[in-house]
Amino acid sequence: MNATEPRRRWWPRSVRARTALAAASTAALILVAIGWWLHHDVYRQGTRIAEKQAEQQLWALVDQLNEGVVPAHRDTVLPYEVVATGRRAAVAYGGGMDAFDPGTRHVLPAPAEAREPGSLTILPLRIPMRDSSSRDRFGMAGRTRTVMFADISADELGSDKVAALGVTTDAHLRVYVVVLPRTAEDMARTTDLLLLRAGLVGLVLIAAVTYFAVRIALRPVEAIRVLTASVTATDPRERVTVPATGHEITALATTINATLQRLDTAAAQQRRFVADAAHELRSPLTTLLASLEVALAYPERTDWPAAATTAARQTRRLQALAEDLLLLARLDTRTPVTGPETVDLTALASRLTEQYPLTERPLTLTCDSTAPAHAHGNPDEYERLLRNLIDNAARHAAHRIQITIRNQDDWVVLTVHDDGPGVPAEDAERIFERFVRLDDARSRDDGGTGLGLAIARDLADRHGGTLTLAPRTLGACFRLRLPRARTPAEK
Question: Does the pTM exceed 0.85?
Fold first, then answer.
């Protein structure tokens, strides 16, 4: 068991579950942020409502006092108290202030100095603790509360009103109303509960919708997985269904079909290559075995030198074919050449021209070059490439083979041109396939193994170049383009 596996058990493995969990977590963070903002906004709005309610009650009390009427305890819903200078007990109180027994001694402070009548003042005050405050239903005792107050001058009321209020003519009255946060707290608490319930239901719905939406979206992926699981290297003919929606799964299905097509093509080429190789190997083996069996059956009538010559020729053919197959196998697995070794293709072509044996037919092999042409790569592989091109030209040329080498900007261009029958335009690419021989080159003694041009192209690709058949009206012309290597003098 993997050492890190126990730590990952809490995280679901299913993409559907992971996506649903991620969506629910993101939604939860958003809902928490929205809930925090709503809580504070509702509390602020509730506080404003409570302050407005307290202000309305305050001015109602002031109006009653200005009329010389002592407010009754039952006329208000918020705690209030009316105090006056020169008086120990409160003038009036109610709304819960009776729990502090203000009839004996007022709770809130009397005005030290008179303020302008009609002005409203809001400030925090600490409600004192008293033995009689055990009946405090609003929990005000010992806490600081926001208080609104307004002042009244007794000398502006008249003697009758002053007497009705029970204060002296030179007294200053102050009307207190305590702002209770109960309204704001109740609104915020109600909002929090609603948000909590709605949030939990919303999270469950978001997770469920996300889970099933991803499940539906992944159905084509599951179909692709089931179908590709049945594909084997020997039979990659299955293809996945491409959705018509045009989304990412369509691109995935298209890519998988393209990959399966390449795999199918590669498997077909491999099967064809194995079949061709077996056929090519069987032919010289059959000839060799037949000649040896005849010689052994009739030893006294066998021309042993001729039999040995035939056996040697077929053995050399088998050897050449085996070497070509091994070289192709190495080329299929090797990386492109990036080494610093530099080869002068002009000198290489000139040397091959001088050393190439032309004893079977009267052929003229010439090399035309104006300057050294350098390219990075392996000298032995370059020699094999040029030799294969010359061998192919020598098998088809009538009288002449010409090699030309030119430096063209950043490329070295080498051509091998023969005056033979040429290659039909429709076979310009097919001749580079393995074990391909055209109709006029079917002789296995003269046509080679059918791998020379395929090896030459693979070597060109390995060195970052190209090998193509150039169009010609007479004969065949193979053009090799390789990246040019700059000499120190040119740099």
Answer: no
